[in-house]
């Protein structure tokens, strides 16, 4: 084992703690996960003659 | 890719995320200090538990002031150090993967993709293969930071730049007879 493996193991510990504390669904207690939003297509309103 | 799939709106949205700096100070602290704390803890464990020889040479610590300029070089210059991978990985891919799946699952999938992206470095020996494990753990941490900062790519870039700055700076100082 060397320093690089130790560091990798510590990052794994950090990740596990974050999942336990913040939850796997959003990894956040305040904000929802950031999702890709499809831009809304603007449609012209029907013309009333 | 973003220009093709989302057009101008998508590109502008990504650019806004890349300069989204209005986040709590605690997130700046997390982005900048977490990589330092993890690396210093690893160094300490390496010395205390595994018997690595700490350097007593003051000259080696003379390199520490270069951490700050190195950080800014990695952060600001595209193509150096990997921070500019973040617009692609966190800015574009993570929100797409998080559509309809949990943040953890999306992060793990992205971790595998990110590790594969670096595969040429492992094959050629430029990077240590242990970094594959680190990268997958990183994606969970980066997803946590990204989601808590309402999608700030800037903070992800800062964390990436600091991780690479401190990672490059620390290993040779306490290696255990291993050439790196």
Helix content of chain A: 40-55%
Provide the structure class of chain A: mainly alpha
Low-confidence stretches of chain A: none
In terms of quaternary structure, the protein is heterodimer
What about the largest sheet of chain A? Answer: none
Radius of gyration of chain A (Å): 22 Å
Q: List the chains of the largest interface with their residue counts.
A: A-B, 32 and 49 residues
Largest sheet of chain B: none
Order of helices and strands of chain B: HHHHHHHHH
**Computed Rg of chain B:** 17 Å
Note the run of SSEs of chain A as H and E. H
**Structural domains of chain B: how many:** 1
Amount of beta strand of chain A: under 5%
- How many beta-strand segments of chain A? 0
Quick one: how many beta strands of chain B?
A: 0
- Report how far apart the termini of chain B are: 36 Å
Tally of alpha and pi helices of chain A: 1
Describe the structure.
The complex is a heterodimer of chains A (49) and B (180). By secondary structure, chain A is mainly α. Chain A has one helix at residues 3-22. The radius of gyration of chain A is 22 Å and the shape is elongated. Chain A starts with a helix and ends in a 27-residue tail after the last helix. The model of chain A has no long low-confidence stretch (mean pLDDT 83). Chain B has one domain.
């Amino acid at each position: 084992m060397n320093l690089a493996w130790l560091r990798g193991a510590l990052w794994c510990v950090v990740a596990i703690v974050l999942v336990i504390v913040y939850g796997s669904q959003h990894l956040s207690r305040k904000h929802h996960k950031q999702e890709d939003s499809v831009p809304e297509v603007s449609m012209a309103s029907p013309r009333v003659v | 890719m973003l220009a093709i799939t989302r057009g101008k709106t998508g590109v502008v949205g990504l650019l806004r995320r890349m300069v989204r700096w209005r986040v709590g100070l605690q997130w700046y602290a997390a982005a900048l200090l977490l990589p330092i704390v993890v690396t210093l803890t690893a160094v300490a464990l390496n010395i205390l538990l595994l018997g690595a020889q700490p350097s007593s040479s003051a000259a080696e610590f003379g390199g520490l002031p270069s951490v700050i300029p190195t950080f800014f070089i990695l952060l600001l210059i595209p193509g150096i150090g990997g921070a500019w991978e973040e617009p692609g990985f966190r800015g574009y891919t993570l929100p797409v993967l998080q559509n309809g799946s949990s943040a953890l699952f999306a992060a793990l999938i992205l971790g595998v993709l990110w590790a594969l992206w670096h595969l040429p470095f492992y094959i050629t020996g430029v990077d240590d293969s242990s970094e594959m494990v680190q990268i997958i753990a990183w994606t969970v941490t980066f997803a946590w930071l990204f989601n808590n900062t309402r999608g700030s790519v800037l903070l992800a870039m800062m964390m990436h730049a600091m991780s690479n700055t401190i990672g490059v700076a620390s290993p040779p100082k306490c290696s255990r007879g291993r050439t790196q």
